[in-house]
Design brief:
Length: 102
């Protein structure tokens, strides 16, 4: 059994702290195809707007995606994976392969 300090230093625990929240993997999956708007992500993830907004802020804070607001009317905002976010592709592919085997 790991104590609290060991858990905090465990790379898997640190990763799950960011990635283990509801909807995070489907957001990352959808952004692997390229930039998306909030409404596109909401339609594909089926997350409530508040939950989606919180996850996007968390992922931006973890440097996994960027938020770009364009100076247009009406306002347009797009979310796109950073290099660090795109580095998760093999992880997502492995999870998808494992999920298909169930």
């Amino acid at each position: 059994m790991m104590d609290k300090e060991q858990q905090e230093n465990c790379p898997i625990e640190r990763a799950l702290e960011i990635l283990g929240r509801r909807g995070t993997f489907v957001i990352l999956r959808d952004l692997m195809d390229g930039p998306k708007r909030f409404s596109e992500l909401q339609a594909s993830t089926h997350l409530p707007p508040r939950t989606l907004s919180m996850r996007l802020k968390e992922l931006e804070g973890a440097d996994l995606l960027t938020r770009t607001q364009y100076p247009e009317v009406p306002p347009r905002v797009e979310y796109e994976l950073t290099e660090r976010g795109r580095a998760l592709k093999p992880v997502l592919d492995a999870l998808a392969a494992w999920g298909e085997s169930l």
